[in-house]
Amino acid sequence: MATVTLTHPEPVLGDDVVLLTVPADGGYLGVLRTATAGLAARLHFALDEIEDLRIAVDEACAMLLAIATRGAELECRFTVTEDALTVEVSVTTVRGARLPAESSFAWKVLTALTTSAAAEASGQRATIRLLTRRTEG
């Protein structure tokens, strides 16, 4: 039986932080896409910006699912500020796993759809961080 956990930790200096944990299975990516769209809409992102961010989160999760350990969970941290949404997705990885190179098509997609994208891997954990700032208009 799979569980989805949603928690609201203490905000940091006015920021809203939402943690969402789902099984590392493609069937649960819709939950993360929906949460992303809802939080971006709360910031009054334009419809195109919301869709770009949903696609970027989906792509980042796909990268992580490819290297996730069996039975792992995707941990997603959404940080909402006045004009930006940061999405950090992380997972435990199989030994020796590597994320795609920054020159790969997948990374080109992430950087085209967000303000910035970064990744880090330490030990058996990989994290992808996406930042999207709302455009004025």
From TrEMBL:
Any one Gene Ontology MF annotation carried by this entry is: ATP binding
InterPro entries per UniProt: HATPase_C_sf, HATPase_dom
> Which superkingdom, per the lineage?
Bacteria
Domain Histidine kinase/HSP90-like ATPase intervals: 23-90
| Keywords, alphabetical | ATP-binding, Nucleotide-binding
Instruction: Spell out the protein name for this chain.
Output: ATP-binding protein
Species assigned in the record = Paractinoplanes rhizophilus
Taxon lineage: Bacteria, Bacillati, Actinomycetota, Actinomycetes, Micromonosporales
